[in-house]
Amino acid sequence: MRIGILALQGAFTEHKIMLEGLGAECFEIRQLKDLYSGPVNGLVFPGGESTVMDKLLRESGLFSPLRGMLEKGIPVLATCAGLILLAEKKEDGTPPCFGTLPVTIRRNAYGRQLGSFQETAPFEGIGDFPMTFIRAPLIVSAAGQVKVLAVTRRYEMTQGISQEFPAAVLWQNQLAMSFHPELSGDPSVHAYFLNMVQNAASLSEGRPA
Ligand code: GLN
């Protein structure tokens, strides 16, 4: 399995370390030619600053080919700012980046007053997982077909809103979360993603996973 990690900015090295620890081959995507350096079985969009990434994606010419790959269903793991890149809608009304994931997000919702925090909660298919939030986007709503794999009650505790919100979602081959699984020391989410990549590769080769 060969995974391309968007490395324009942000926390990409930690994903590489996690995935390589699980036996995957990784390469960094910084410029257009990186996309054509060999087969690409999956993508990772890391945390960082989504507005900067959006700008660099367009300036580097990476935006269109990556959107094409997403539209064709390449498996992607998107964390924090990466989730913002995929989201179909942003509550502040600014235009989406790729807009391939039918969720609405609120940027920086787990805001400055919190800095970062960790909350352990069940993640479907994994079990309890330590979720690290860093100035993270809130998934305000998700379309009916989007599968919610983990929720957080943390927003309720800090904002007085009595509601659980999705913290990790899956739609088609897009696995996205508000938190940073690469900083948890627990490789389960990355293993879950590699399993998706394996299944997608087996399907496209016409044999069972
Ligand atoms: N606040 C960042 C943004 O809006 C996301 C934070 C993160 O990725 N840790 O892009």
From TrEMBL:
One Gene Ontology cellular component: glutaminase complex
Active site as annotated: 80, 180, 182
EC number: 4.3.3.6, 3.5.1.2
Catalytic activity: L-glutamine + H2O = L-glutamate + NH4(+); aldehydo-D-ribose 5-phosphate + D-glyceraldehyde 3-phosphate + L-glutamine = pyridoxal 5'-phosphate + L-glutamate + phosphate + 3 H2O + H(+)
Pfam families: SNO (PF01174)
GO BP terms: L-glutamine catabolic process; pyridoxal phosphate biosynthetic process; pyridoxine metabolic process
Superkingdom in the source lineage: Bacteria
Record: residues binding L-glutamine: 48-50, 107, 134-135
Record-linked InterPro entries: Class_I_gatase-like (IPR029062), PdxT/SNO (IPR002161), PdxT/SNO_CS (IPR021196)
Annotated transmembrane regions: none
GO molecular-function term, one example from the UniProt record: pyridoxal 5'-phosphate synthase (glutamine hydrolysing) activity
Alphabetically ordered keywords of this record: Glutamine amidotransferase, Hydrolase, Lyase, Pyridoxal phosphate, Transferase
Pathway(s) per entry: Cofactor biosynthesis; pyridoxal 5'-phosphate biosynthesis
Assembly information from the UniProt record: In the presence of PdxS, forms a dodecamer of heterodimers. Only shows activity in the heterodimer.
Similarity comment: family membership: Belongs to the glutaminase PdxT/SNO family.
HAMAP family: PdxT
Function recorded in the entry: Catalyzes the hydrolysis of glutamine to glutamate and ammonia as part of the biosynthesis of pyridoxal 5'-phosphate. The resulting ammonia molecule is channeled to the active site of PdxS.
Protein's name according to its UniProt entry: Pyridoxal 5'-phosphate synthase subunit PdxT
Species for this entry: Eisenbergiella tayi
